[in-house]
């Protein structure tokens, strides 16, 4: 996919830092910035690939020779795009304002290859303006995606993310990115940089190494900067991260809801199903990453009904699955508690600002959950206090119905990464006792652990 830089715009989001109390665990290793914490909170970001390629014949990366006369959406409604995102629970959307073909979705004074020379609205239209206005009305963070070789872009609000993809950007030097980064840091200090190749020194998030919507297992947020710089030789490192990496640069996972990035009528029957989207969510967001999900509007200028419906189906699954932690009400004990402020009960209170922590010197711990009656479940989720760094490096979950005979939960043995969120699904189990075993490079700091039943 010929991805180019993206500028992400939106309103301020207040983040909850890890609570500070007298005996709180000290951070370990590289930790996320405030910008990265905000980025993680998005979980899913929408892409909108829409432009002159939408009107070409199965074109995904135009050569810049298509006539502006073919661009003529008959019913463009960015408000409908926003309704799609609201129904899908997606807080941020990114518009491809100009793809590799160079066609500008706004009436720029610096190029004749733009909407101003198309028949759409008699050359008076502005897709970028309609998109950002619709985002503002809907309360969606707006993003703009532009080519790295551009020397100008209009300002539509606070910039939250820059996409510096490596495709087609080999001619740009690190010095170029250094100058660009200095300008952005000064004008938009809250902006997150998506970095590859020459832009690696400034990266806040990284490419995951594929476009299938899957992160690796494990998937560390830490990585060596040179693995980003020399990406073609380090695809595995991009996919899995590196536990001992010196930089905190988590993975952003891009995939389209259709086989292509731009709309093609021939793919109307190949939209990813709700089940496929659930798998992607669990193997991206559920593997310590953020999902970038592409919605290609059709030639009328609307997100197709099937695409919108299936995205809403994913949101419904997320909402219903994680609405109730079946461990609520359990009696919880741990081997190495840190103190009352870090009680094991914090794991099931549904609050991100409270957490369980092991005592200093106890890098291994076991936490047991004793339920009043057996529960049937087929999914578990665990979340680390990422503000304190990657601490746990090995964890397993077991279940029991008598509290003495323990059986490993399938797919939840000898796991490594936790990070922002880790999700595991399996065939339904029934148990009255659960046991979480943790070990790592520092005392554990976990704010959520739960078992759930998928709808």
Task: Tell me briefly what this model is.
This protein is an alpha/beta fold.
Distance between the termini: 34 Å
Order of helices and strands: EHEHEHEEHEEEHHEEHEHEEEEEEE
> Helix proportion of residues, in percent?
10-25%
**Strand count, sense and closure of the main sheet?**
9 strands, mixed, barrel
Number of extended strands = 18
Proportion of residues in β-strands = 15-25%
Estimate the mean pLDDT confidence. Answer: 89
Record the strand order, biggest sheet: 1-4-3-2-11-10-7-6-5
What gyration radius follows from the Cα positions, in whole Å? 23 Å
How many alpha or pi helices? 8
| Structural category | alpha/beta
Low-confidence stretches: 1-16, 149-155
Outline type: globular
Account of the protein in words:
With 455 residues, this protein is of the alpha/beta class. It has helices at 34-42, 78-88, 127-138, 174-187, 225-229, 235-240, 274-282, 305-321, and strands at residues 6-9, 44-48, 92-96, 141-145, 159-163, 192-195, 205-207, 222-223, 247-248, 251-256, 290-294, 331-334, 356-357, 364-384, 392-400, 407-408, 422-440, 445-452. The strands form three sheets. It has a nine-stranded mixed barrel with strand order 1-4-3-2-11-10-7-6-5. Helix 4 (174-187) links the parallel strand 5 and strand 6. Helix 2 (78-88) runs parallel beside helix 3 and helix 2 packs parallel to helix 8. The longest helix is centred in the last third of the chain and has 17 residues, at 305-321. The chain is globular and about 75 Å long. Residues 1-16 and 149-155 have low confidence and may be disordered.
């Amino acid at each position: 996919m010929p991805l180019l830089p993206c500028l992400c715009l939106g309103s301020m989001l207040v983040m909850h830092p890890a609570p500070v109390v007298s005996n709180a665990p000290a951070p370990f290793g590289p930790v996320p910035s405030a910008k990265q914490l905000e980025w993680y909170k998005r979980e899913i970001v929408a892409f909108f690939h829409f432009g002159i390629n939408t009107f070409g014949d199965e074109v995904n990366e135009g050569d810049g020779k298509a006539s502006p006369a073919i661009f003529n959406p008959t019913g463009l409604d960015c408000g409908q795009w926003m309704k799609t995102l609201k129904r899908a629970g997606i807080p941020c959307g990114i518009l491809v304002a100009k793809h590799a073909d160079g066609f500008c979705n706004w009436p720029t004074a610096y190029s004749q290859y733009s909407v101003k020379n198309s028949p759409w609205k008699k050359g008076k239209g502005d897709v970028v303006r309609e998109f950002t206005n619709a985002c503002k009305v809907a309360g969606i963070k707006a993003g703009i995606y532009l080519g790295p070789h551009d020397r100008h872009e209009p300002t539509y609000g606070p910039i939250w993310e820059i996409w510096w993809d490596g495709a087609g950007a080999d001619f740009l030097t690190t010095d170029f990115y250094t100058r660009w980064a200095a300008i952005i840091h000064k004008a938009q200090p809250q902006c997150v940089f998506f970095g590859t190749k020459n832009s690696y020194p400034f990266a806040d998030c990284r490419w995951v190494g594929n476009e299938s919507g899957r992160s690796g297992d494990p998937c560390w947020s830490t990585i060596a900067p040179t693995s980003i710089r020399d990406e073609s030789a380090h695809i595995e490192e991009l996919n899995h991260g590196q536990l001992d990496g010196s930089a905190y640069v988590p993975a952003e996972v891009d995939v389209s809801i259709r086989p292509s990035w731009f709309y093609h009528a021939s793919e109307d029957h190949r939209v990813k199903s709700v089940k496929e989207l659930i798998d992607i969510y669990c193997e991206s967001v559920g593997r310590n990453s953020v999902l970038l999900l592409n919605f290609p509007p059709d030639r009328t200028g609307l997100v197709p009904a099937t695409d919108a419906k299936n995205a809403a189906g994913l949101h419904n699954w997320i909402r219903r699955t994680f609405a109730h932690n079946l461990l609520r009400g359990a009696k919880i004990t741990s081997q190495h508690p840190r103190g009352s402020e870090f009680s094991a009960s914090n794991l099931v209170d549904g609050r991100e600002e409270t957490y369980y922590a092991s005592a200093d010197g106890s890098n291994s711990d076991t936490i047991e959950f004793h339920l009043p009656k057996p529960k049937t479940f087929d999914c578990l989720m665990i979340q680390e206090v990422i503000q304190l760094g990657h601490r746990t490096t090995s964890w397993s979950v077991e279940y029991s119905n008598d509290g003495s005979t323990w059986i490993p939960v399938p797919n939840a043995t000898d796991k490594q990464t936790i990070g922002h969120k880790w999700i595991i699904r399996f065939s339904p189990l029934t148990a009255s006792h659960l046991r979480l075993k943790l070990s790592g490079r520092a005392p554990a700091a976990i704010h959520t652990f739960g078992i759930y039943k998928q709808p």
